[in-house]
Amino acid sequence: MESIRKKVAALRAEAEAAQDRSEELERSLKDESARAEAAEAEVSSLQRRLQLLDEELERAQERYQVAADKLADIEKAADESERARKVLENRGLSDDDRILDLERLVNESRSMAEEADHKFEEVARKLVVTEAELERAEERAEVAEAKGSDLEEELKIVATNLKSLEVSEEKASEREFNYEEKIKQLE
Predict the structure, then answer these.
(1) In which band, very low, low, confident or very high, does the pLDDT at 95 lie, cut at 50, 70 and 90?
(2) What is the DSSP string of 106-158?
(3) Exposure string (b/e) for 46-82, b if CB count within 10 Å is 16 or more?
(4) pLDDT (tens digit per residue) in 111-156
């Protein structure tokens, strides 16, 4: 019996040791369960956070795509505006050149018109003088002819007057010829 008692005591000691180990394992299991729950909660939290970050990333990518599209449109519009600006600058430069040429032509035309006006006035004055001299010469010729037919006795005087008239008429013709030449030259 003693051996049974020893065995029972040994079994009790083993049972107590097993119970202690069991309690210790239960505590360890509770700690591990608590840690596992905390880890699961943390994993769940991280999964939610990851999901939120994914959604935020998608929204950011959408905003980026919208901004990139807008930027591309703005760049196209800027390129078109730049091309239009260059076209207008070139057109403005050519218009400026044309304006300068036209202004130069206007100034040249004005000076030519002023010269032509001066020449015309000079020729008109000379023409008036020549016409007046012609009228006087014609009047003198008429007077001389009337006297010639009326006064045959003063034929010699008239002849000399006629000669002097012819000389003056030649001079007048020469002057008239010269004036006509000058008028042609002036024209």
Answers:
(1) confident
(2) HHHHHHHHHHHHHHHHHHHHHHHHHHHHHHHHHHHHHHHHHHHHH-GGGHHHH
(3) eeeeeeeeeeeeeeeeeeeeeeeeeeeeeeeeeeeee
(4) 998 898 899 899 889 888 888 988 888 888 888 777 656 756 766 7
Q: DSSP states of 3-34 as a string? A: HHHHHHHHHHHHHHHHHHHHHHHHHHHHHHHH
For the chain, what is the domain count?
1
Question: Residue 87 belongs to what domain range?
Answer: 1-185
Whole-number Cα distances in Å, 134 to 87, 126, 131: 68, 12, 5
Q: Are 144 and 158 in contact (CB under 8 A)?
A: yes
